[in-house]
Amino acid sequence: MNVIGGIGVPIHVLLVEDSPGDVRLTQEAFRDANASIKLHVATDGVEAMAFLRKRDGYADAPRPDLILLDLNLPRMDGREVLARIKEDEDLKTIPTVILTTSDAEADIVRSYQLRANVFLSKPVELDAFEAVVRSINDFWLTKAKLPTLKSLQ
Amino acid sequence: MAPHVLFVEDSPGDVRLTREAFYVANETIAVHVAADGVEAMAFLNHEGAFADVPRPDLVLLDLNLPRKNGWEVLAAIKRDTGLMSIPTIILTASEADDDVEKSFQLNANVYFSKPVELDAFEQLIASITQFWLTTAQLPPHRYAG
Known about the structure:
By secondary structure, chain A is an alpha/beta fold. Chain A contains five helices and five strands.
């Protein structure tokens, strides 16, 4: 069903997360969920924007099909990254999923106002965390139709 | 509190099938139906007969609608500071890349092509229900503009 996930065609996901433990767990959970996902990691907001704009050593970075964005990040925080993505005519169509330990109402409301596509709280329990990653794979990367890259080719 | 879904769809057959699929997925969901884009905006803005309707937790929006089409409704929701935080899901027969692109440009939260097979359609509604009403965190009602 998925136009971007055909056989042999990698699905590029950009994970913006500063905790090495959370990066490892997310990589493992995606590997179990869907072998065609290629997970790219940026460990702070500045690196995320460099990846997305193909600057500072990221000239060959692919355009991600999906962004998973933590809110609390060094250098440039997730709210600022989200605002920049959604104000950029080329980047705004990339579905951006907030994935954070915060479940504060103010963060939820602010994220939707900044045009996050969805806000997910990161569960502390490992089983629950893996279930969230599976649901991201099932919902966003399997059932949903995502924009194609035609506009940038 | 029971979740409220606003379903904007002009085909009576699709409305019936979707109501049934929501009921199977989660019988506590209140599904409200608007049959065209003008009615959808009246519902969201509490106009006229819709003065007392709840703010929906989720909007499911077809693209091809009488009077005011889905893109106009989507654009109106996403430029209204009171409404923009309501997740708005495009659910349409179209699989055209241009329609997908345009919907994301207008800040649709997600886009689905409606499966023709009934089983697949019911699974999609169950999946939407599970993801948006259980897994995702939605804005609380008191932030309604």
